[in-house]
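anyone else get weird line breaks when pasting these?? whatever heres mine. first is seq + tokens for prot A
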Amino acid sequence: MIEETLKKTVIAIVGLLLLMGALGWAFQKELVAAAEWVANHLGFPGIALVILIGDSFVLPFPPDSMLVVVSRSHMAANWWLYVFGIGAVSAWAGIQGYFIGRWLEHFPTLHRVFGRFRDEHGPQLRKYGFWWVVLGATTPLPFSVTTWTAGMLQLPLTHVAAACLFRIPRFFIYYGVIHAGLGLFS
């Protein structure tokens, strides 16, 4: 399972690089204008809120899109500070997701539906829970679903919190890929 996920991650990163390069080339003016608009109107607090909501709940857009804003706006001058902040907020969102999972466990319907999953995969996920959350924190897997599941399985909070910290280097790597991809054809 891990080998397959890693292969899919590499393919996704290469695909993201190519997609960002193509979009950066085709829509350079629009992308810069949109990034500046978001940076000027939301600022870092607004971007942090988008990340917090995006990584605490399941949303139809990836929080990684905020890295495009950093890369193509005035924030690029201090990108490392913003990317670190985004990573830290994302890690905090993962911890919130854990508590959301603990809360969701109390709903009878979810408890029943999740009970089958827990019966099948629970022992393995409890045994490798830390690494499973690391996998969710570093790959394109939905991070919120990973942390909700960790909460529903009642994995140790300290393990989940430590694994969530892997979001910080992940955002640095993804920023590098997005920045390089956007600049590929510029």
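and prot B, same format (seq, then tokens)
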Amino acid sequence: MSDPAKTRFDISHLTPEQARVTQKHGTERAFSGAYHDEKRSGTYACVVCGTPLFASAHKFDSGTGWPSFWQPIEEASVGTRSDRSFFMVRTEVHCATCGAHQGHVFPDGPQPTGLRYCINSASLSFEPES
């Protein structure tokens, strides 16, 4: 089956970095992304299709250098799959609407979920609350 992000959605608006991260499962350098230190209230959406994925109310400072959230806005807005790259097993997170790679989820986050969604800024757009 083909990747829906590459077949159904226009990616011409993406920067080269956004395309590398979302379409080729890339990772931006730690502390280099636009949103790792973002403190304003608002919504984080998929940069490819605009689906709302994460809320600032669920964001926390994990110290990792990437935006981290303890849950998505809705469980159905993100999908996961096993990632066995780089000689390790991780759980990849992608947008459930378009398939764009977002980052990874780890079981070392805060309560109440105990999860840390470690997301690339390049895969997100941010809409501050008005």
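btw re prot B: Residues 7 and 98 are 9 Å apart (CA to CA). The longest helix spans residues 16-24.
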